[in-house]
Design a protein that fits this description.
This protein is about 65% helix and about 0% strand. The protein is mainly alpha-helical. The longest helix has 24 residues. This is Cbb3-type cytochrome oxidase maturation protein. It holds the Pfam family FixS.
Amino acid sequence: MDVIYGLIPGMLFLGLATVAVLFWAARTGQFEDLDGDGRRILMDEDEIDPPAPPAAGADPAKLEKSHADL
């Protein structure tokens, strides 16, 4: 019976800490984009970040060589 005197305050503390963490997570935007990571996995990299156009005056032979290295 003496164990209950320690368990009840302990469970109240853990419960309040859990509620505080959930409120903190909701306030900081942790639950804003739940589907974004799942969709990002299915996308091609080309759709996410298209390559930048070559700079003016760039040598086309060097560009082809750099793409062949990939």
